[in-house]
Every structure is written in structure tokens, then in C-alpha cells.
Amino acid sequence: GAGVSQTPSNKVTEKGKYVELRCDPISGHTALYWYRQSLGQGPEFLIYFQGTGAADDSGLPNDRFFAVRPEGSVSTLKIQRTERGDSAVYLCASSPVGYTEAFFGQGTRLTVV
Amino acid sequence: SQQGEEDPQALSIQEGENATMNCSYKTSINNLQWYRQNSGRGLVHLILIRSNEREKHSGRLRVTLDTSKKSSSLLITASRAADTASYFCATDDNNDMRFGAGTRLTVKP
To answer: CA-CA distance, A43 to A34, in Å (whole number)?
Structure first.
């Protein structure tokens, strides 16, 4: 597709379960970002990839959160032992190089019950 | 952590009026961007201004940057009801992007 694709669009999971959120960036974009956004708040930075490596993972809130981008394209955000406080919209964005115009996906709404 | 901080948090104006939103940030930057988010999820890039630029225009948008005050403003002229959205500034921090909490703009027809 032409844009950034995130799947699933919605995910409901039980507290304590493991979830994976997927991001398909625009082909050829080397930079990929993950954010989470709670209602009424701005996007909170989680992690930034440049190619296959995490250039900055300082926004990951704790060791339950992990993200990979093994081939420098698709990325997966993994959350272990989910908590109700993890409920948010998780946004992915990609850009041709770091810190230029970024293109966002429509997000995955995660609800932990 | 957030980097930019937008002001005001909410702004309500009549169609045809101008809307001004401000962004303040804390660390030195290379560039500053403004994004828009309609109710829903995806953010849309509006404009990027480099640290060596002071003003930039794009259609009805005018962005200024004052690096000495670590602040930027976004002006939307001749607003339309369709401009109703949240607006965020994003600053680079070691080449990643950090957003503020945003300004919620409501344009009344």
C-alpha cells in the first residue's frame, strides 16, 4: 500500500496477556517511530528505529515493552504482561530519513480489560 | 518524555478568523514540525521549519521560529470549519521526534 499500515486496528486483551502490534512502513523509509497516545494527550515517544537498529529506545516505559525491526522494514511492538494502564492508541510513523516529514498510520487501539 | 508544549490547550474561534497556536520547547533543535490530528488517529504533517529559518509559509499556514526563546507559532489564516482538529508541534531530540500535548482548535461555522 501507499501509506503506513498498522494491524490490528483494534485489540482487546485481558490483563496479564501478551500482545503484538504490527507496523508496515512506507517502502524505502529507513526511519520508523512508535508512539502511544492516551485520550486528550499528545503522542508519547516510545522508540525510534533507523534501519534495523533502535537508535533511541528511551521512551519505552519499562521492560514489559519491546520492539523489533529485524529486516529494516516491518516493525513489531511487543507488550508482555499487559496492564490496564497500557490501554491507549499505539501509533507508528515512518520517514525517508530521520527527522523529516513523517507519515503516520491510523494506529492500533489497545484496550486491556 | 514530551519535548514541546503547546499553548493554548484549547482554542475556539469563528470561521474566517485567524488562529494562533504556540509551542515552547526545552532543548536545542535542528528542526521543528507541526502536525494535525483529526478526531481519530493518524497525524498529518503540515510544515517543517529548520533551526536557521525564522518564518515559513504554506497556503494558509504561517510558522515562525524563535530559537533564542525556544518557541514557535503556527498561524492559520481565514479559518474554516474543516480546520477543527488538534495541532501538535514536534521537535527533534537526537534525531527522533517528540510531541507536545497539543492545541485543540474548534472553528465554528
So the answer is: 9
